[in-house]
Design brief:
- By secondary structure, this protein is α/β, with parallel strands linked by helices.
- The protein has two domains: 59 residues, Orthogonal Bundle (DNA polymerase, domain 1), CATH 1.10.150; 264 residues, Aldolase class I (TIM Barrel, Alpha-Beta Barrel).
- The chain contains eleven helices and 14 strands.
- The strands form three sheets. It has a ten-stranded mixed β-sheet with strand order 3-4-5-6-9-10-11-12-13-14, covered by helices on one side.
- Helix 1 crosses helix 2 and helix 6 runs parallel beside helix 9.
- It binds S-adenosyl-L-homocysteine and iron/sulfur cluster (SF4).
- The site of iron/sulfur cluster has 11 residues, from loops.
């Protein structure tokens, strides 16, 4: 018999299900809290649920319908999980601890593979397998919490896949993370390669996370060379959408810009980027290119050029950060997630 997966349910749905089994509503509340707030790994952990009902749960239900297949721990404390889903496909999720902050950030995947084909990214190299359901996305966080017994405080949708190519599930996942895991929408960030219509749609959503845009180039010519999406939604259309997003949400956007040595890290590119961003309320996150196994010969930027690029942008009043490289020794850094065991 197929077991019922309880982490799929909203609180109301869980109540309905438990009450249908002849139990009181408070029982559902206990179970909800064990799953979402107390990192219960099994029904036997739920010590205030009476034994007979735990036996029923063990027989008929499961908390999750996926599992941690492998776990790699980086020398900097970053943990990369390979999560196996019910059909045997896997996706990666990365837990990042920052020693000097109390934040614990989880980077989640939203698809197995990716259709976008960005030239610098390992995820798209093996093609696209399928979308992850909302519950499968949220399970990545639950599994990491169960594994570490820590409470995750921030979620970034920056793992494998293009969130806006799986929009309905992303919206549902955001709601589950907010309502069930009690993580504020201010602590969630969704990164997109720039599927323009969904930027307008997100601006109308009830819960609006921080929007991060993978821009990576200051003009059409360079962007087209490294991101096929530029052919469908070009950088000028993207700019219009970002200005509108600013207007509707009043929120600052994060602009992600991978620095690739000699390609987009020149002084000219910095000036062009400043001009492109002048009407957009944003912070800029520079990401040093992480080499991936590919036949394309992109280079890491050198440190001097990177700092020069940063100073030029700052001189024009932008807040700029250089993204810390996390977990590069276990291929957990940006762009390195390839879900190796799917191959
Ligand atoms: N698909 C979404 C989110 C996942 S990628 C997106 O593209 O925005 C998360 C970030 O890592 C993106 O900004 C992406 O462009 C960047 N990235 C991809 N490959 C990279 C690489 N090799 N080095 C550095 N950053 C990379
Ligand atoms: Fe997909 Fe993002 Fe990688 Fe591009 S950078 S291929 S959109 S995961």
């Amino acid at each position: 018999m197929k077991k019922v997966t309880l982490s799929k349910f909203s609180k109301e749905e869980l109540c309905d299900y438990i009450v249908k089994q002849g139990e009181m509503k408070f029982r559902a509340e206990q179970i909800h809290s064990w799953i979402w707030a107390k990192n219960a790994k099994s029904f036997d952990d739920m010590t205030d649920v009476k034994k007979e009902f735990r036996a029923f749960l063990n027989e008929n239900c499961q908390i999750l319908d996926c599992r941690i297949k492998t776990r790699q721990i980086s020398s900097d404390g970053t943990i990369k999980y390979l999560i196996e889903y019910k059909d045997g496909l896997c996706a990666e999720a990365v837990l990042m601890r920052f020693d000097n902050r109390s934040n614990l950030s989880m980077c989640v995947s939203c698809q197995v593979g990716c259709k976008m084909g960005c030239k610098f990214c390992a995820t798209g190299k093996n093609g696209f397998k399928r979308n992850l359901e909302a519950n499968e996305i949220v399970s990545q966080i639950l599994l990491a919490q169960m594994d570490t017994d820590l409470k995750i405080t921030n979620v970034v949708f920056m793992g494998q896949g293009e969130p806006f190519d799986n929009f309905e599930n992303i919206k549902k996942a955001i709601e589950l993370i907010n309502k069930n895991l009690q993580i504020s929408i201010r602590r969630m960030t969704v990164s997109t390669s720039g599927i323009v219509p969904k930027i307008y749609e997100l601006a109308q959503n009830d819960l609006i996370p921080t929007l991060a845009i993978s821009l990576h180039a200051p003009n059409h010519q360079i962007r087209e060379k490294i991101m096929p999406i530029e052919k469908k939604y070009n950088i000028e259309e993207l700019k219009k959408a970002l200005i509108e997003f600013n207007k509707i949400t009043k929120d600052r956007i994060t602009i992600e810009y991978i620095l690739i040595g000699g390609l987009n890290d020149t002084k000219e590119c910095a000036f062009e980027l400043i001009d492109f961003l002048k009407d957009i309320k944003c912070n800029i996150n520079l990401i040093p290119y992480n080499p991936i196994n590919s036949d394309i010969d992109f280079k890491k930027p050198n440190k001097k050029d990177m700092l020069k690029f940063k100073y030029l942008l700052e001189a024009f009043g932008k807040k700029v950060t250089i993204r810390l490289e996390r977990g590069a020794d276990i291929d957990a850094a940006c762009g390195q997630l390839a879900g190796k065991l799917n191959n």
